[in-house]
Amino acid sequence: GNSVTQMEGPVTLSEEAFLTINCTYTATGYPSLFWYVQYPGEGLQLLLKATKADDKGSNKGFEATYRKETTSFHLEKGSVQVSDSAVYFCALSLYNTDKLIFGTGTRLQVFP
Amino acid sequence: AAGVIQSPRHLIKEKRETATLKCYPIPRHDTVYWYQQGPGQDPQFLISFYEKMQSDKGSIPDRFSAQQFSDYHSELNMSSLELGDSALYFCASSPGSLYNEQFFGPGTRLTVL
Fold it and tell me: What is the pLDDT of residue B40?
């Protein structure tokens, strides 16, 4: 079936550290890939997306590259801030349906 | 910019009661999605509507029903509530089916006692 696997959290970092959150997927066909962020008590916000192989999504210093050969979409940021503390969800959608299939989420905690 | 509006934001019900959750999409968005997020879990797709017709269905219990109205707002009706229905219910909207980008509302937190 179609699924998303994320690294388990929490990920705990000091401010200005480098961030990587791993995400791999299993899907039939060619999915679109997304990273959503959920701040405490809030809804999901789209952070970035990529719709085809080798596309790089980027936003607010975060980046992720759609790697078809490794079926991965790892999230990276060069220098995290305390305000980046949130839960990050990797997700996919398939061509013939809009529904999003989410990973289990990774909690990021950034300390000053 | 206008966002997806959900009401109520919080709802407390007893077992076996009914609940109705409402979702108002971003203006000119004609597609609505419902997701359920249990405590500490990832959001699970329930159902979606495009131009007032059901477009996809996920793991929605038979006790739940939903519809999209002529003004594109949507309602999720939940009957015979169970303790396990306690969750955060998100609505998302997008401008057209298969657009790929979904804009999420703040969610309705349902607590069943």
Answer: 83
Alpha-carbon Rg for chain A in angstroms: 13
Listed as ranges, residues in chain A with pLDDT below 50 are none
Set of chain A residues whose Cβ sits within 8 Å of the Cβ of B95: none
Is residue B100 a contact partner of residue A32, using CB atoms and an 8 Å limit?
A: yes
CA proximity to B63, closest of B107, B18, B32: B18
CA-CA distance, B111 to B81, in Å (whole number)?
10
Structure letter (DSSP) for residue B75: E
Length of chain B (residues): 113
Chain A residues inside the 8 Å CB shell of B107: 43
Task: Please tell me if residue B24 touches chain A, with a CB cutoff of 8 Å.
Answer: no
Q: Are B91 and B26 in contact (CB under 8 A)?
A: no
